[in-house]
Each structure stands twice: as structure tokens, then as C-alpha cells.
Amino acid sequence: MEVLVINGGQRLEGVVVVQGAKNAALPIMAATLLATGECRLQRVPRLQDVSVMAAVIRSLGMKVERRGDELLVAPESTVTPEVPAELMRQLRASNLVMGPLLGRWHYFRVPYPGGCAIGSRPMDLHIKGLMAMGAEVTEKLGYIEARTTGLRGTSFYLDFPSVGATENLMMAAALAEGVTTLYNAAREPEIVDLQNFLNAMGARIRGAGRDTIRIEGVKELKGCDYKIIPDRIEAGTFLAAAAATGGDVLVQDCQPEHLMAVLAKLGEMGARIIIKKEAIRIQGPGRPRAVDCKTLPYPGFPTDMQPQFMALMSVADGTSIMVESIFENRFKHASELRRLGADIKIEGRVAVINGVPGLSGSMVEASDLRAGAALVIAGLLAEGQTLVEGVHHLDRGYEQLEKRLGDLGADIQRLSKK
Fold first, then answer.
1. What are the φ and ψ backbone dihedral angles of 123, each rounded to 5 degrees?
2. Which of 29, 120, 134, 147 is the most exposed place for a label (fewest CB within 10 A)?
3. Contact 324, 349 (CB under 8 A)
4. For residue 118, is pLDDT > 60?
């Protein structure tokens, strides 16, 4: 078992370059199943989730080869539209192969997916949308099975702007007969990136980034070259870490317009923000001010930044309120932050954080990806030594996190623990 050992109190300074977005790379990798030729994906991060998705599409009959930060993906043989259960259990986003498989191959049989235990993420919107396009879907013995003689365009209203359902239905509709219109669609930048990738292959999609997306089905999608957008959550995590340590950090190769809700809250907490074309410089306050925050679908404050901000709120001057409106079970990191001395009270989906003057190092365990990021930030600002267990969660979404923080001046290293 590996742990991160952090000796806190070091101010972060310097430059960090943001990697490609995990949450854009995964649906785009799934979308390569629609292509008749090779796709060359650039700026693909080296993450555990990316490796699992590569194994998923490889198991379906695709050739996947990594060259540096690029992935080459091409059809290698006849696609077998059934995903092994052991792969699906490792990654929630593995369900994104359903739309491409049904759209191009007219059939799939997949187990229910796994992923971080942060709350209920039901599949009903995915299934209802596919059925609206003419699929026959059955659920039994832990599997979802769907078949069609050919999907047809339809109008479909999403009860909630689910990112995964929006992506799955976009991909399914790309080769469907006629026009599909998705109402109340998710608006995340990763949705726009998927649209741009599909259009680069020959799809006819417009509206991503707004709440109505129109997909005009085409006969065929071809391979293409495509560069994935930078990871806004990784950028936000480095910004929060810099603010927590009173640091001065330039976050390069990011898209500031994707982070406006996060930047607004950091500014409210007292950080100085300088926005450049593709970079953000942050100068952290001596001690952050307390703020109130509520997670919302994009362009609201992202749920994937809630744990990192709770770490920052733990040492803020005053009382902060955090409302988690997306997932009902995403406060597990609060109990671990308390081990470091944080004063946090949880009532349902509301956390009340009374800021303390400082945290003290201790042993903590990450329960999921973003909880792990929060504990690392807490360890950076805590007095003494913090040991973070559950490092494998961090490897799902951050590439060489300890090295890049170390390059900014953090005293952090990864060790094997027997």
C-alpha cells in the first residue's frame, strides 16, 4: 500500500501546467467506437481511469496505443458489444460505451458500472433516452441489455442535466436516422468538447454548452486528430492548494472561462486572481475569509471542487456554509478533516465549517478521488506531518500529483507502507 507523506507549512510558488481533462478524455475515447478509421487523441492524461477506459474499448475490439501524451485508437476486429464485469466495476464512465455501441452496432450488454462511492448516480435517464430513440432495453441479473434495428431521431427532455446521460445520448444519436433534440442537457465544457470531437469525425451537432442540443444523424463517422481540453478540476485543485498555503502560483494551459465560479469564490476568500488568455495567477491570502457555497450543475460551482474548498474553509476566518446539491453522500472527507483539527458539522446535504486558526498533521484516508485532493490540501497547510492513505483514488484523476506539488515547493513524497 502506498501513502503520501506531507510535511506541512510550505508556501507553494512557481508554475504548473494543466493536463488534459479526464472527464473529456473518457467520453471521447468511448466515441471512437463510432469511427470507421483511426483517431489520434492528443493531450490524454496518464491516469488510472484513462487506462481502465482503454482496457474497456480494447475489450470491445479496438486497438489502443499510447505514444507520449497521445492515444491512437482504431478498429482492429469485429466489435464484441459486451464489456467484462471486472472492467465496468472499476469505472463509472465505462457506461459511456452504451451510446456508441447501440448507435453503430445496434446492441450492447453491459454490467452496471462502478466508480467512486459519492452517492446515487442512476442509469434511468440513459435508458429512457435510448428507449425514446427506439431501443429495446432490459435490466436483469445486474446487466443492462439493449438492441435495435436502427435508432431514430426523437425529442427528449432530461429530468436532470446529467452529464453522462447527455454524452451517451449525443453519441447514440450521431448515427441515428433523423434529428434528435435533447432538452435540459448538461452544459459542461466536456460536453462541448465531445460535440467538437464528434463534429471533427463528420457528425452534425450544435448547441452543446447550452441547454438544448440538436443532433442530425449521419450515415458514417470517420477517424480524425483531436486535442482534448485542459482539466478544469485539476486547475481548480492547484488554485485551491495555492490559496490554502498563501502561495503565488501560475496555472498554465488552462481555460479560465471554465473556472469562473471557482475563481469568484477564491476572490471572495481574499485571493488575488490575475486572469490571462490561457493561464491564471493566484496569490493566496494570509488567511482566507469564510464564504458560503452551493454546488450546482455547470456553470455553477462544481461538485468536484467541493471537497477541496472544504479544506480551505477549515482554516478560514469565520463560519462557512457548504451545500452539496448534486450528490447526497459527498461529505465523507469531513470526518477525515476533523482528524486534522477541523470544526465541521454535517446536517444532510449541508456542512457548517467553523474556521480554526490552523490544522495539525495526522493520518487520514481518502474515500474517493476529490476527497483525496482535499486531504492533500489540508496536509499542505497543516502543522507537522500528515499521512494520506488511499492514494490509488488520487491516481484516478491527477497525474503525478506529488511531483508537481513538489515542484511548487511542497514537502511531499510517496512511500510504500507495509
1. -95, 5
2. 120
3. yes
4. no
Residue 22 annotated as binding site: yes
Is 92 labelled a binding residue?
yes
Q: For the chain, how are helix, strand and coil distributed in percent, rounded to 5? A: 35, 30, 35
Q: Give the HSE-up count for residue 71: Cα atoms under 13 Å, Cβ half-sphere.
A: 27
Say what the pLDDT of residue 208 is: 98
The catalytic position among 116, 224, 254, 293 is: 116
- Give the alpha-carbon dihedral of 66, 68, 69, 72, to 10 degrees: -30
Q: Which of 6-10, 93-97, 203-207, 381-385 shows the lowest per-residue confidence on average (mean pLDDT)?
A: 93-97
Q: Let me know if 116 is a catalytic residue.
A: yes
Indicate yes or no: pTM above 0.70: yes
In angstroms, the Cα distances linking 336 to 298, 306, 348 are 28, 15, 17
pLDDT, tens digit (0-9, with 9 covering 90-100), for 232-257: 999 999 999 999 999 999 999 999 99
Q: Please tell me whether 326 is known to bind a ligand.
A: yes
Q: Give the integer Cα–Cα distance in Å for 140 and 234.
A: 37
Q: What are the two backbone dihedrals, phi and then psi, of residue 364, each rounded to the nearest 5 degrees?
A: -135, 165
